[in-house]
Design a protein that fits this description.
Its cofactor is Mg(2+). The protein has 413 residues and is α/β, with parallel strands linked by helices. Helix content is 18%, strand content 31%. It contains seven helices and 28 strands. The strands form eight sheets. It has a six-stranded mixed β-sheet with strand order 7-4-6-5-9-8, with no helix packed on it. A six-stranded mixed β-sheet has the order 16-13-17-21-20-18, with helices on both faces. Helix 1 crosses helix 6 and helix 3 runs parallel beside helix 6. The structure holds ligand LQZAQKY5 and molybdate ion. Ligand LQZAQKY5 binds next to helix 6.
């Protein structure tokens, strides 16, 4: 694995996806009220037709098309009222020529009903006679058995993140216990002699630990868990013990900092020092994030994230998120919108460049303001709405160009 011969983003994504497909993620059963945002671990099939019977979608009268074909306001058609359906009743009547039945919204239809006429277009003449003032089309105001879902049809697929709407769908199927993937568990080891915790006294030259908080936030939003966060000095032995300690506890271990090739960058060496280990990637042609490492120790993914916060967060969002979703057989697209650049942006030579931008709405278009800055700057990502991708064969995008902005978060304008 030659660090200076960095692989493309596409290749890196292929490798991480393959590793994820080979990982066995356990499942668990949760109750419906706790299932929001979890990822479904099996295909759910309809145990019944939905609706289970032909039903009316309006309050009105069940009719046959031929009986009312010439019906109008001025020449209404009299039909014989043979039944008044009650909600919940199992209707056994069969409509015959010249007959009608009253059916409330959601009520079961008599057999042979071809259309429902809303009550507004009818008039009760006497106890037995209803005047119908308009014709109907086949199936008008009717919801047929299985229209919504038919028996055996998959209504929620494995890998789907459960939304509030899905909770409603599960409820309609009478499913109160859902099989989901266990929440993937992360450990975050933040390395650096200069790194101190948020509660520590800061001396000149020291840097506050940022990455585990920001990464932890992303993990939580994704639906993962962080079970261990640790700050460790740039010391081979200490980083190794921290990694050893977290291995059994985690599905994914993030090591922030020390991913480059400096004298005190130990992440790669630490991974390689374990018997059952492998380095799959060291160096990706991306800016920010070039020195990223994908390794494995005892089958667990160990990612060496570059220490610079913007680099760590961008590489997490691209690669670790892909792994996180794929081990749960899930796939998500990053939403992008077209926006007009308000300044020139330049690519880093030989790297796919992820340029942060801030979106604002101008009349009927979105404008993308490039946020210039180095990967070490935390304000960059806090201000950014998203990023644009400059492919590595391209030198720049000029002001005024319409580009795709990939959203990093909900838009707060
Ligand atoms: N000779 C080369 N040097 C570097 C290269 C290269 O290709 N050849 N790549 C550069 C790039 S690009 C990046 S990105 C950095 C990443 O290096 P490391 O992963 O080894 O990161 P560190 O040196 O440990 O830290 C970089 C920077 O970030 C600060 N940092 C680290 N951890 C945290 C944290 N948890 N919270 C806040 N800030 C953190 C650290 O203090 C440093 O300032 O390598 C370049 N070098
Ligand atoms: O790849 Mo580095 O992340 O540009 O600063």
């Amino acid at each position: 694995m030659d660090f200076f011969n960095a692989i493309s983003v596409k290749e890196a994504l292929q490798i991480i996806t393959k590793l994820a497909n080979d990982y066995k993620m356990d499942t668990e059963v949760v109750s419906l009220v706790d299932a929001i945002d979890r990822i479904v671990a099996m295909n759910y099939r309809a145990p019944v037709n939905l609706p289970q019977f032909n039903r009316s979608t309006v309050d009105g009268y069940a009719v046959m098309i031929q009986d009312v074909v010439d019906a109008s306001e001025t020449s209404p058609m009299p039909l014989k009222l043979v039944h008044e359906v009650i909600m919940g009743e199992v209707v056994t009547d069969v409509l015959k020529e010249g007959q009608t039945a009253y059916v409330p919204t959601g009520g079961m239809l008599p057999e042979k009903t071809e259309g429902m006429v809303m009550i507004e277009y009818t008039k009760q003449l006497d106890e037995e006679t209803i005047l119908i003032k308009k014709p109907v089309q086949e199936g008008e105001n009717i919801s047929y058995t299985g229209d919504d879902l038919s028996l055996g049809e998959v209504y929620i697929k494995a890998g789907k993140r459960i939304t509030a709407y899905d909770l409603g769908l599960f409820a309609s199927m009478g499913v109160g216990q859902i099989e989901v993937y266990k929440k993937p568990v992360f450990s975050i080891i933040s390395t650096g002699d200069e790194i101190i915790g948020i509660d520590e006294e800061q001396s000149f030259g020291q840097i506050r630990e940022i990455n585990s908080y920001a990464l932890g936030g992303l993990i939580k939003q994704l639906g993962g868990e962080v079970n261990k966060r640790k700050i460790v000095k740039d010391d081979f032995g200490k980083i190794r013990s921290a990694l050893e300690e977290t291995l059994v506890l985690s599905d994914i271990i993030l090591v922030s900092g020390g991913s480059s090739v400096g004298k005190k960058d130990y992440t790669r060496q630490v991974i390689e020092s374990f018997d059952n280990s492998q380095i799959w990637v060291h160096g990706i042609a991306i800016k920010p994030g070039r020195p990223t490492i994908f390794g494995q120790v005892e089958g667990k993914l160990v990612v060496g994230l570059p220490g610079h916060p913007a680099s760590a967060l961008v590489t997490f969002s691209l690669f670790v998120k892909r792994y996180f979703l794929t081990i749960q057989k899930s796939r998500q697209e990053v939403v992008h919108i077209k926006a007009m650049l308000t300044g020139d942006v330049y690519a880093a030579q030989g790297r796919e460049t992820y340029q942060m931008v801030r979106l604002s709405r101008k009349a009927d278009i979105w404008e993308a303001l490039p946020l210039y800055g180095k990967s070490g700057m935390m304000t960059l990502l806090a201000k950014a709405s998203g990023y644009i991708k400059i492919p590595f064969e391209k030198e720049k995008f000029e002001k005024g160009t319409f580009v795709d902005v990939y959203l990093l978060k909900d838009l707060t304008l």
